[in-house]
Amino acid sequence: MTLTELSVRTGITMANLSILKTNKARAVRFTTLTAICTALNTTPGELFTYEEQSG
């Protein structure tokens, strides 16, 4: 699915989706996460992974 189609389905701007896609977001609102999960028929656990940073 393209960002354009996801934007139409969720009502989230292309700019905000792009920020999320490139890992530049500092936070994600629950309403945004819910809209994306609904559009993609998935769960938050399937969208995110946790990686420890070396340090």
Specify the overall morphology.
globular
Could you tell me the number of beta strands? 0
List SSEs in N-to-C order.
Answer: HHHH
Number of domains: 1
Q: State the secondary-structure class.
A: mainly alpha
Alpha carbon gyration radius = 12 Å
Question: Can you tell me the residue ranges where pLDDT is under 50 for at least 5 consecutive residues?
Answer: none
Quote the distance from N terminus to C terminus. Answer: 36 Å
How is the main sheet built? none
Q: Helix content range of the residues, please?
A: 55-70%
**What is the average per-residue confidence, as pLDDT, rounded to a whole number?**
93
Binned strand content: under 5%
What's the total helix number? 4
Structure characterization notes:
The protein has 55 residues and is mainly α. The chain has one domain (3-44). It has four helices and no strands. The protein has helices at residues 3-10, 14-21, 30-40, 44-47. It is globular, with a radius of gyration of 12 Å. The chain starts with a helix and ends in an 8-residue tail after the last helix. The mean pLDDT is 93.
Notable features of this structure?
55 residues; mainly alpha; 4 helices; globular
Question: What is the strand and helix layout of this fold?
Answer:
Blueprint: H1 3-10, H2 14-21, H3 30-40, H4 44-47
Q: In short, what is this structure?
A:
The protein is mostly helical and 55 residues long.
